[in-house]
Amino acid sequence: MLRRVLPLLIVVCSSLFIHAQESIKKPFDVDVQYFYGNIAAHSKDIAHLITEHPKGLILSYNRKTYGLNEWERRYNYPDWGFSFIYQDFGNEFVGKNYSLFGHYSFYFLNRKLQFRIGQGIAYNTNPFDIETNKKNNAFGSHLLSATYLLLNYKQALTNQIHLQGGLTLTHYSNGNVRAPNSSLNTLAANIGLVYTPKDQEIPSYIALDNKKYKEPITFNFAIRGGANESDRLGLGQHPFFVASAFVDKRISYKSTLQAGVDVFFARFLKEQIEFEAVAFPQFGTQGDEDWKRVGVFIGHELRFGRVAFVSQLGYYVYYPYDFEGRIYERIGLKRYFGDHFFGTVTVKAHGAKAEAVEFGIGYRL
C-alpha cells in the first residue's frame, strides 16, 4: 500500500474546488459507522506495534448531486462530503488518530452499492520521540496524511433510515516529511446507519448527453517542491525541487494520457550520501556520487471537471546513487485554473515507500 499523503490531499481539495461556487441547495444525509479490524503487517519493522485489533468510528456528512455539473452526470451522480474518523490502534506506543477528510461516494447496483474514497489530514496523539517514545516508528510527526476507502451495501429500513455495512481501509503516513515513517494500514469491517432528514426538496436527475470529447496533444511544464528527510535519523529536513516537461492527450471527457521527463534535485540524498561514506564504508558509497536524478514517466489523469486525479509510473534513466530502486510512482490531485495554469499536490513513492509530498504549479500550452 503506497504511503499516500495526500499528500494525494486529493478529495478535500476536490470538494472545495468544485463546489465552492455552487449556490443551489441540495439534499443531504448523515451517517455513523463503527469499524473493527486488523493492522496490515506490510513490514516486519512494525510487528511490535500490532498488539490488538484497531477500532473506531466514522461520522460523515454527504451532499447529493443530480447532474447540475457535467462531471456529476458522467459519474452516475456521486455524493460528496466530509468525514471525521476516530481510530484507536490498540497500542500504547502508537496512540490514537483523529482525522478530517473530504470524500466522494460513487454508486452501483441501482445505488445500493457504495464506494467511497476520502483524503485528508490526521492528528496522532503519540508520535515518535527520541527520548520518550522510540518504539513508534510508524509515525514521526503529530500531523499525518490520511486516506480511507470504504465499500458498503445499503438497505432501507424506513424512508429516513438505511442500514449499511461493508469494508473499510485506512492509511496514515506523513510522506517522509519527518522520519521515521513506516506508516500504518488498517483493514476493517464496518456497520452503521444513514439518516436522511424529512421534507427535503428532491430535484430530478439531469440526463447525460453522451457526446464524445477529445483534445489535441499538448505540451506542459511543471515545477514541484517541498521538504523531506532521510530515513537515517538525525540528518534533518531539507528542501527538494522537481522540474517536469511532458505532453498530454485528452482522449475523452474522463481520461487524459501523459508522457514526459522529470529532473529531481533532492538535497536529503546529498546528506545521506556523505553520511554513508563516513559511517557505513561497507556499503561502497564514495561520498562524491551525484545526488540528482532524471526519470521518464507515463501517466493518466481521471478528470472531474477542473479537478483531476493523477497517477504516473516512472523510471530513472540517470541514477548515479542507488536509493529505493529505479522505478517510482506519483499519485495525487491536479486543479486546473482556466485553460493554461494548474496546481498539484502529489506523493512520490517507490513501491510501498514514500519519498516526498510534492506541491507544484504548472503551465499547459
Features:
8-stranded antiparallel β-barrel, 365 residues, mainly beta, 3 helices, flat
Question: What does this molecule look like?
Answer:
The protein is mainly beta and 365 residues long. Helix content is 8%, strand content 52%. The chain contains three helices and 16 strands. It has helices at 10-19, 70-74, 267-279; strands at 28-39, 55-63, 79-88, 96-108, 113-124, 143-156, 161-173, 184-195, 218-229, 237-250, 255-266, 292-304, 307-318, 327-337, 341-350, 353-364. Strands 1-2-3-4-5-6-7-8 form an eight-stranded antiparallel barrel. Strand 6 (143-156) and strand 7 form a beta hairpin. The longest helix has 13 residues, at 267-279. The protein starts with 9 loop residues before the first helix and ends with a strand.
Helix count? 3
Q: H/E series, N to C?
A: HEEHEEEEEEEEEHEEEEE
Ranges with pLDDT <50 over ≥5 residues? 1-22
Number of strands: 16
Task: Name the beta content range.
Answer: over 45%
Mean pLDDT: 91
- Helix content, binned percent: under 10%
Distance between the termini: 35 Å
Cross-sheet strand order for the largest sheet? 1-2-3-4-5-6-7-8
Q: What global shape is seen? A: flat
The major pleated sheet works out as: 8 strands, antiparallel, barrel
Radius of gyration, in angstroms, nearest whole number: 22 Å
Give the helix/strand class.
Answer: mainly beta
